Amino acid sequence: MSHYFIGIKVHSEISEKLMNWQSILRETMNYKDWTAKADLHVTLKFLGSCSDERIERYVQRLKNESWPSEYSLTVGPAGGFGDQERPRVFHAQVEKAPSLLETKEKVDGIGEKLGFQKEKREFNPHITLAKKQAEGVSPLMEASEDSVLFETYEMVVNEFSIFRIHPGKHPKYETVATIKGGQKI
């Protein structure tokens, strides 16, 4: 069985900016896992290991719902989870916009009806740039407020996807299905 998650793919123009952040991070820190440009996303729900049939049922339920049409998310500034000097995850923060929260709630609700457990942790939207920190010091510790790491960008969202995870590949996320906003299929 494969592992899956539901998320929002990051647009290419923002991916370029986040890859610049990642290059700054590489100058001061050594992580075990660097996110490929094609894999940048905002996770809505991690599904874990499940059959293709179970995923197909989830896709059909998602496609039968109405979703927020088009909305904007603010991406940035950079941040980290864990020790701020040596965060275990370095990421771009993502705004908790009402339409994003509505989408997250509906995705969770449908998942619960299909037997997927609801996440117990608070939803903290972000785009992971690197994780499994090995050594170094975060560039945020010495960055001035005019650093690109403190910039924010607007990203328009009108869809989300279900991804299959291929741990040994690079990039490692394969789009299985895409759900468009503002419409039922």
Automatic annotation (TrEMBL):
- Motif HXTX 1 boundaries: 41-44
Q: Which GO terms describe its molecular function?
A: 2',3'-cyclic-nucleotide 3'-phosphodiesterase activity; RNA 2',3'-cyclic 3'-phosphodiesterase activity
Assigned keywords, A-Z: Hydrolase
The UniProt entry annotates the active site at 41, 126
What's a Pfam family in this record?
Answer: LigT_PEase
Q: Which residues form the Phosphoesterase HXTX domain?
A: 9-90, 98-168
Per the Swiss-Prot or TrEMBL record, what residue ranges does the short sequence motif HXTX 2 cover? Answer: 126-129
InterPro entries from the UniProt entry: Cyclic_Pdiesterase, Phosphoesterase_HXTX, RNA_CPDase
Reactions catalysed according to its record? a 3'-end 2',3'-cyclophospho-ribonucleotide-RNA + H2O = a 3'-end 2'-phospho-ribonucleotide-RNA + H(+)
Signal peptide range equals none
Q: What is its EC number?
A: 3.1.4.58
The record's NCBIfam families line, in alphabetical order, gives: 2_5_ligase (TIGR02258)
Q: Tell me its family.
A: Belongs to the 2H phosphoesterase superfamily. ThpR family.
Function in brief: Hydrolyzes RNA 2',3'-cyclic phosphodiester to an RNA 2'-phosphomonoester.
Q: What is this protein called?
A: RNA 2',3'-cyclic phosphodiesterase
Instruction: Tell me what organism the protein belongs to.
Output: Halobacillus trueperi
